[in-house]
Design brief:
single chain; six-stranded antiparallel beta sheet; globular
Length: 482
């Protein structure tokens, strides 16, 4: 995703990982992404309820885009930054059990944009969540609705957006102003991307696995973006930016993340970090688990010459997956063999994932502790975002000394939460058929307890780190004769 806001000039550019159900240890499917923007932009949790009397029009708060909306809307959760409630929803599930992750910033080629430029007042990343998720009942419907909106209004910028339900995962990449391609993620593969269009193949006859804008290939032929005499149509080659120029350097900003993650998941694949020949869909050497995905989003070329935190090198050319200005990372998991209320979870780490803790947000939860909706652009002692952010800020003062303290505490908390989740889910399954409201109350109480306890752990870490930092500073300034 990419945001250019009045309060910040930082770009928001993310990393996405999607996993088919035959690649996970438990048969679940995964849609996950980091949201990397500005550490000062606190993220708040939002809950919207089902309604028959929703807004009739969407009016963006930070762009000129607007469009009509159906009055009937599904309830859904969102993770917007504090400035734009009801916009930039980012990630969550709706009450029908469909999830969306919006958005991954991508870039079309200058040549493609000459013939179909972005539409300044068109569909931008700020609105692609809140005008789609409340109105869809399947992941495929999500692609169809988003695609129809791009067709009608045009895109204001480049983006990739994922949809997940209990049957499949889809991911859409747009290309220039009015064109796009979506693919159903193969069940036996995973997909990773970092701020670059990754799609290659498109078979317009395969309606089960591909959806696309009308005339996608024909437009490319007409304007010299694709020559059929040169072989099979390649979406990336026809429409996408690739490589290094005056404005972008994919070779150090994007390629290393894909290379690093595929090396983590599939060390048997002989990739070259300098060449964009990475497989679009790959097979992992070992099955995915939630802990493995947590590790992936904490990746920063750990322990190598390119590790910016180990070497205290803020100018490291290889851009890591986990960066300090991440505002939140989410791992959306669907386990179709369970009731959607507990079978669908969004694990969220507020702030930098490497020094953060992933917390489970269940689809059936109806509210969150107030601390998770109070953050703004100034540090405080009340909001969840800033209580977690303080921990990682102190950790970065002396990463090699303080980060292990944070990681040990959060590793222990995540392991405890994993066990508590198993116990709660067993109790939920015993209740939900005969006493569904009691089951929901059990889930709500569990969620409140987990989220509140995480804040207590963060507060304890702040005090521990301040104690150690105070001692370290005192030792540094112990003058002669003391």
């Amino acid at each position: 995703m990419r945001k250019e806001k009045k309060t910040s000039k930082l770009p928001s550019e993310c990393t996405t990982i999607i996993v088919g159900d035959k690649q996970t240890a438990d048969g679940s499917r995964i849609l996950a992404r980091s949201s990397d923007f500005d550490a000062m932009m606190a993220i708040n949790f939002e809950v919207h309820k089902d309604t028959d009397f929703g807004p009739k029009e969407f009016i963006a708060k930070d762009s000129a885009f607007r469009c009509p909306l159906p009055e009937k809307a599904l309830g859904y959760t969102g993770l917007p930054d504090f400035q734009f409630p009801g916009e930039w929803g980012s990630a969550g599930f709706n009450s029908a059990g469909v999830g969306e992750s919006s958005t991954e910033t991508i870039f079309s080629s200058a040549k493609a944009l000459q013939f179909d430029p972005y539409v300044p007042d068109g569909l931008a990343e700020n609105c692609t969540y809140n005008i789609v998720l409340p109105y869809i009942h399947t992941a495929r419907e999500g692609v169809e609705r988003l695609g129809s909106l791009i067709d009608k209004y045009g895109s204001a910028e480049g983006f990739g957006i994922g949809f997940i339900d209990d049957k499949e995962v889809w991911y859409l990449e747009n290309a220039c102003g009015h064109h796009w391609l979506a693919t159903r993620i193969p069940r036996g593969h995973y997909f990773v991307t970092g701020n670059q269009s990754r799609y290659r193949r498109y078979d317009p006859e395969d309606k089960e696995n591909y959806l696309a804008s009308k005339g996608l290939i024909e437009f490319a032929i007409e304007h010299g973006l694709y020559d059929p005499a040169q072989g099979e149509f390649d979406f990336h080659e026809a429409y996408s930016h690739d490589g290094k120029d005056e404005e972008r350097d994919d070779t150090t900003y994007n390629y290393p993340r894909v290379w690093g993650l595929q090396a983590l998941f599939s060390p048997s694949i002989p990739n070259d970090v300098t060449k964009n020949t990475f497989p679009v869909f790959a097979k992992a050497d070992e099955k995915f688990t939630i802990p493995k995905l947590r590790t992936a989003f904490r990746f920063h070329y750990n322990g190598t010459e390119h590790d910016p935190y180990l070497h205290q090198n803020g100018k490291e050319p290889y851009r890591p997956v986990s960066i300090f200005r991440t505002t939140q990372t989410h791992i959306m998991q669907v386990r179709p063999d369970l009731p959607k209320e507990i079978g669908e979870i969004t694990y969220v780490a507020l702030g930098m994932a490497d020094l953060g803790v992933f917390l489970p947000l269940y689809q059936g939860v109806r509210s969150f502790p107030k601390a998770y909706s109070k953050g703004n652009g100034h540090a405080d002692d009340k909001s969840a975002y800033w209580r977690f952010r303080k921990v990682m800020t102190l950790g970065m003062v002396n990463y090699n000394k303080y980060a292990p303290i944070i990681k040990e505490a959060y590793d222990k908390l995540e392991a405890e939460n994993d066990q508590r989740q198993k116990e709660m889910e067993e109790a939920y399954l015993k209740l939900y058929k005969k006493e569904p409201m009691k089951a929901l109350d059990l889930l709500q109480d569990f969620s409140d307890s987990i989220l509140n306890h995480a804040l207590e752990v963060a507060d304890d870490l702040v005090n521990e780190l301040f104690t150690r930092l105070t001692y370290d500073i005192q030792q540094e300034y112990m003058f002669h004769g003391a």
